[in-house]
Design goal:
heterodimer, A: 552 residues, alpha/beta, FAD/NAD(P)-binding domain, eight-stranded mixed beta sheet, six-stranded antiparallel beta sheet, globular, B: 153 residues, mainly alpha, 8 helices, 52% helix, elongated, binds flavin-adenine dinucleotide, binds iron/sulfur cluster
Chain lengths: 552, 153
């Protein structure tokens, strides 16, 4: 029996013990999807094992009355609260920022806002320029061609010529309208002489593939009910499946198996009924994100890899970076219909992105504006004393803020620290008995100072834009779902887990595809970079395929 | 494409007993006592359809909410909620989300607040340019590139 092609639930998986996949990918988020689509186009038989399910556009609440409430329950960002059958527990009791994610075909792109910036050239040279952390083993210029292809595949809307970046070709769609609230903020930035630009988003304005034009519900973070936001269940998986990929849902991988030589031989996974299965493969690609990938590697111990797979450097799980994110809400007299989407980023500013040591910290933050939401979410934007009011007073506060506000989000760079890490929880397990992930994450003084400084500047900027009140929200614990750095790339096996393309130093037929590869975090949303790195990695994997060492 | 089933919704349905329902209305009245400008809390959702939607979306909080409603029934509402806010903020927030969520999901409340969101608003031809004109970006362009170039390679 050969492994069936197409997509089906793990309970229907019927491959025989003799079957050997060319490649097994663990995780069907953007990094896994990029690998699958590319490998399938080169004729490899890929089997992707994803613990979550497909989510149909019709299941999203964004165009329904109950949307806002759903964000506090079934569509909560935090899997520990949402507790869907596809979520696994993450102990965050020792974390200043909670790592949020979505486990499904599409991974985090189901839930993401579609903010789709590139990293900046300086992000790849932090040690050289600022004397902290490390340089990446590649440059902005190395990644630029992959960014261009990624932005095409994600149907990005953007305006060419952004002065924060080197010039490059135009994205497939023009920038989205900045709406009244974006214009208001831009006027304030102009008054202060700040640089800004309409921000790039993976949200289409034309029909591209299966995506259709955005109609600005502004509810993108609970899945786009219109099918306009580029989530990889729409942009990548249909093509990968058409090219012969096997995508097995409800498949909970617990271990990557190895032979005496230390090469990967296959994976062990459970279906939703707890039936354990094994699948042999020539090559394994880890695409389970910055928490899931180290969790699995650490759980895959053997005589050849006693500290976990690919972990001779003891760096698997370490250097976790999460982009602490704060927010200033500017409240204006004018009604700006500021719930109008997309949400999506609206305008961005890199004015305070680069290091200026006179500020008392190194590195910096990206500023971006976003729409507000409806009345329930607005009640959470209020200052604490106003939020605690009741009845007419509370409703008056909501009315004053909703539609009259600009959310100015401050996304900060956090530096890598070995003590900020993912380990295996000694007690808690998922439904199949696999140890849960435990996250230890403390913000350093550099980041604390950076956030405080940026909040003060954001307050000034909102006042310069004409805001009557500004409400400051310090770092929000369950933002922003950027899971980075836990299996960093590099050239030296003692100080990195993979080579500069994502191949594990210790295991030549194990590749890492996701945000674990980050060396430093930059201060921008990561999915464009994760997908571009994945495209660069898989291109190299195919180039080296003829010489690939395999176990079978 | 023939997709395998989705198991998102597989969990016990969330409903309230009549006692819990009555207590929920008391909690709602505490958070949202009647005033003169907005619809009274007991006048919205007369057929219970919004509550049904809200409960379905708050399924992850089912046990917390049900047990809070059972306890609240035995206490003075104001003091119960104040103690809950201090001792179990998560449970307090779940109750708050239930009653505010129900109220703020009602169309008549949206009308009173002036909220017209969650409707399609297709992007008009030339709209993006209009928000940027005239010359909103000119000062930015005049200033020019701001990124730090790095030696390549
Ligand atoms: C609410 C929210 C908003 C966000 N907004 C933005 C944004 O606007 N812009 C941006 O750039 N980024 C955003 N992100 C982050 C973005 O979603 C991630 O960067 C991106 O999805 C990472 O891709 P990935 O492939 O590395 O991992 P993921 O997308 O997390 O995919 C990993 C997949 O692996 C699966 N998996 C994990 N462990 C196992 C296992 N043991 N067995 C089988 N399967 C497994 C998971 O179920 C999951 O589907 C947001 C994230 C969230 C949660
Ligand atoms: S604003 Fe656009 S992308 Fe966001 S949910 Fe609405 S249609 Fe989808």
């Amino acid at each position: 029996m050969t492994i069936r092609r197409g997509t089906y639930d793990a309970t229907a998986f019927d491959a025989s013990p003799d079957d050997v996949a060319d490649v097994v990918i663990i995780g069907a988020g953007p990094s896994g999807a990029v690998y699958a689509k590319y490998l399938a186009s080169w004729g490899f038989h890929v089997v992707c094992l994803e613990q979550g399910d497909w989510v149909g556009t019709a299941e999203y609440t964004g165009n329904r009355q109950e949307y806002e409430v759903s964000m506090y329950g079934t569509w909560h960002k935090n899997g520990n609260i949402r507790k869907l059958p596809s979520d696994y527990p993450v102990d965050t009791s020792e974390a200043d920022v909670i790592p949020v994610m979505y486990n499904a075909v599409g991974g985090g792109t189901i839930h993401y806002g579609g903010h789709f910036p590139r990293m900046l050239p300086s992000d790849f040279r932090v040690r050289t320029l600022d004397g902290v952390a490390d340089d990446w083993p590649l440059t902005y210029e190395d990644l630029a061609p992959y960014y261009v292809r990624t932005e095409a595949e994600f149907a990005v809307s953007a305006m060419p010529g952004d002065p924060a970046y080197p010039d490059g070709p135009a994205a497939p769609n023009p920038a989205l309208p900045i709406n009244a609230y974006g214009r208001k903020l831009a006027e304030g930035f102009n008054a202060l002489g700040y640089s800004w630009w309409p921000a790039p988003n993976a949200i289409t304005q034309s029909t591209i593939g299966d995506l259709v034009p955005c109609v600005r519900y502004g509810t993108c973070e609970a899945g786009c009910p219109n099918g306009s936001k580029a989530s990889v269940d729409i942009t990548h998986w249909p093509a990968a499946l058409k090219a012969g990929t096997t995508l097995v849902t409800g498949a909970w991988v617990s271990e990557v198996t190895t032979n005496a030589k230390g090469l990967a031989t296959g994976v062990v996974f459970s279906d939703r009924n707890g039936v354990q299965r094994r699948l042999r493969t020539d090559l394994v690609v880890m695409a389970a994100n910055g928490i899931g990938t180290p969790r699995l590697l650490l759980n895959s111990t053997s005589a050849a890899h006693p500290n976990g797979l690919a972990n001779s450097s003891d760096l698997v799980g370490r250097n976790l970076m999460l982009h602490p994110t704060a927010m200033a809400v500017g409240v204006f007299d004018e009604d700006m219909t500021s719930w109008r989407g997309p949400a999506g980023q609206n305008i961005h500013s890199y004015e305070f992105y680069e290091t200026d040591v006179s500020r008392g910290f190194v590195r910096g933050a990206k500023w971006l504006s976003m729409p507000t939401s409806g009345p329930l979410v607005t009640s959470d934007l209020l200052a604490p004393a106003d939020r605690d009011t009741r009845g007419e007073e509370l409703l008056d506060h909501i009315k004053r803020v909703m539609g009259h506000s600009v959310l100015l989000v401050i996304l900060t760079e956090d530096l890598p620290h070995e003590d900020n890490r993912v380990t295996l929880d000694p007690v808690a397990t998922d439904r199949h008995g696999v140890p849960a992930a435990k996250v230890t994450y403390r913000r350093d003084q550099n980041n604390i100072d950076m956030v405080a400084w940026n909040l003060r500047k954001a307050e000034e900027a909102l006042h310069a834009s004409g805001a009557r009140d500004v409400i400051l929200h310090d770092v929000m614990p369950d933002q922003p779902g950027h899971l980075l750095g836990t299996a960093r790339m590099g050239t030296d096996p003692e100080t990195s887990v993979t080579d500069p393309f994502g191949r594990a130093h210790d295991v030549s037929n194990l590749w890492i595809a996701d945000g674990s590869l980050y060396v430093t975090s930059g201060g921008v949303n990561p999915t464009n970079t994760i997908a571009a790195l994945a495209l660069r990695g898989v291109t190299e994997l195919v180039r080296r395929a003829a010489d690939q060492e395999v176990a079978s | 494409m023939n997709m395998p089933p989705n198991y998102r919704g597989v969990s016990e349905p969330f409903t309230l007993t009549s006692n819990q329902h009555a207590t929920m209305l008391d909690v709602a009245a505490w958070f949202l006592p009647d005033g003169s400008t907005f619809p009274p809390v007991d006048a919205v959702d007369s057929d219970g359809s919004i509550l049904e939607l809200v409960l379905q979306e708050l399924r992850p909080w089912r046990r917390t909410i049900q047990s809070c409603l059972d306890s609240a029934a035995e206490h003075d509402m104001g003091s119960y909620l104040q103690v809950l806010q201090q001792d179990d903020l998560e449970a307090y927030e779940a109750l708050r989300t239930l009653v505010l969520g129900r109220y703020l999901t009602a169309p008549e409340v949206w009308a009173a607040l002036g909220y017209t969101g969650r409707r399609p608003s297709p992007i008009g031809v030339g709209e993006a340019e209009r928000w940027l004109s005239p010359d909103l970006l000119q000062p930015v362009l005049d200033r020019g590139k701001i990124y730090r170039p790095t030696p390549s390679g």
